[in-house]
């Protein structure tokens, strides 16, 4: 699963300094056993792309119990830690399969106690792969397709049954992030829905997702954060989470251009597959460029990480510096 890009050899890993990217030519920016594994399902794991239709009115979300975050309140930090699973309709996306949402929530709950040892309350998260990049063009040539509104509605209903936050994950292919975000506005107006951006799947003209690393810029992330902030202020919404997953230093350029925005909690989630030592090394590398107002996040892989060594325990994750505010399992 999730290994559509060519793996680099251990020698290249050593020469490159893991995720730092030093000395790695552009042509070698392909996933390694740790630092460059795709953060979600590979293009081969997704269904064959179908044309992305012009958006039409879809299901209206069921009314939220209140205009607050799950469990109450309007802000996440410092009282909460986010812990959740990634997934979607393909089993390759993670454990949040449509028929297993209740079971996945039970697993998240089992982990929660181990992530609440510092006195924080764990807020469970469903991260749904909502815009899916793939290796062949859709009708508009943008190498991505959209999950139907009824799928998002079903995941939101399940999240609400279990007091969870729903994050809509976007793999934009050749599209830009902001248009993909704004087309989800009907969902982002809900108080318990946020975003997760996957820039390794954001490629340029002539590039194919899964063949090369995609990338974004701090300025592009800032445009999304500004849009979310406007929604929060105009509609009196609780704080919006905006995760951006980063697997390699090259995936986000000039992070300093991502500025603070009222009502938005940006989270930099360090992504990738590997053993504990490799993951810790990449954590240190990528945290060094994190803007102070951006919260730290960390991602683990139940299957792929354990092929490299034991899965990191919650205690080991919480020992990272800085301590993660978001922990995502796939």
Automatic annotation (TrEMBL):
Q: Where is the signal peptide?
A: 1-21
Q: Does the keyword Signal apply?
A: yes
Q: Where is the composition biased (Low complexity)?
A: 27-45
Task: List the biased-composition ranges (Pro residues).
Answer: 46-64
- Keyword tags: Signal
Chain segments carrying region Disordered: 18-73
The name under which this protein is listed is Lipoprotein
